[in-house]
Amino acid sequence: MALEAIQTVTQAEAKAKADRDAAGAQAKQKLADAQREAKQIVEQARNQAREEARRMMAEAEAKAARLTREELEKAAQDCETLKQNARGRLEEAAQLIVGRVVER
């Protein structure tokens, strides 16, 4: 009877050790899986951030180009207005100059 009890205890200890070893291996595997998944999530977040940054840069560049075009068009219109005003007063300026030259 004592020998059977010792064998039962020995078997129980062996089973407990095997269970602990299996649980340890399972925990290590779960940790490795979680770390791999975390790396994938971080990489995915980085890729999304890069794409968002590219999209924002493209939008900013397009807006800057549009604003530049608008400012250049406005400057060209202002320049044309000034030229027309100057042309309109060209005859008057010529008469003024001739008048002053003749008075001398």
Account of the 3D structure:
By secondary structure, the chain is mainly α. The chain is built from one helix and no strands. It has one helix spanning 2-103. The model has no long low-confidence stretch (mean pLDDT 92).
- Please give the count of helices: 1
Helix and strand sequence:
H
Q: What class, by secondary structure content?
A: mainly alpha
| Fraction of helical residues | over 70%
Unreliable runs: none
Main beta sheet:
none
Q: Note the beta-strand portion.
A: under 5%
Global Rg: 44 Å
Mean pLDDT over the full residue set: 92
Beta strand count: 0
How far the N terminus sits from the C terminus, by CA atoms, comes to 147 Å
In one word, what is the shape? rod-shaped
Brief sketch in words of this structure:
This protein is mainly α. It is built from one helix and no strands.
Name a few traits of the molecule:
1 helix, mainly alpha, 104 residues
Topology:
Elements lengths: L1 H102 L1
